[in-house]
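USER:
Working in pairs, take the chain set out below, taking as long as you need, and write a paragraph about the fold.
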Amino acid sequence: SIYLKQGNLARSKVLLAEAMPFFCEIAIKWGVAFGPEMVSHCLILFADIARMDGSIELAVRLLGASEKIHEPIDLAMEPWRERFDDILGAVREQLGEREFDAIWKEGQEMSLEQAVSYALDTAERAETLEKEVRAKAGKPFPDGLSNREVDVAVLLVEGLTNREIGERLFVSESTVANHVQSVLNKTGSGN
């Protein structure tokens, strides 16, 4: 929760993903009320991360699952109620009532095990996607082209003139001409 307050979503996901299976095991194998309560609280934190990431539907499902886990054994949600209500209010206003209700119901229909699996799978997919994006961002373009040179080359291939490319990229026609020349030089193309 400290990392979440600091805005470190990635670290928060990692710690929650490490803790959640332990709490789930306590809840399922040992039947200790503390287990479901902590799973539910982890789901609330995952929902908050999802909300911050803009994954509103995910947040609603996780909140629905969290609420369901609290209901059957009358767990005290009081320390978490304010956070839960804040997240719920924020996501509810971003969806229409019908859409919200349908997604909430999906979360409510999840078992404890399904909710944990869903949260962990989502966190794992997000982490994998984040790694892929970082890896791609770090890879240079062929022939050492810059991002802007690639932009210009793509538009050039589409048949746009230097003036049209400049208008699209909000640069002068002479800047486009310089980029075109640089692309030609770097790729060894004559035209």
About this structure: The CA atoms of residues 70 and 147 lie 50 Å apart.
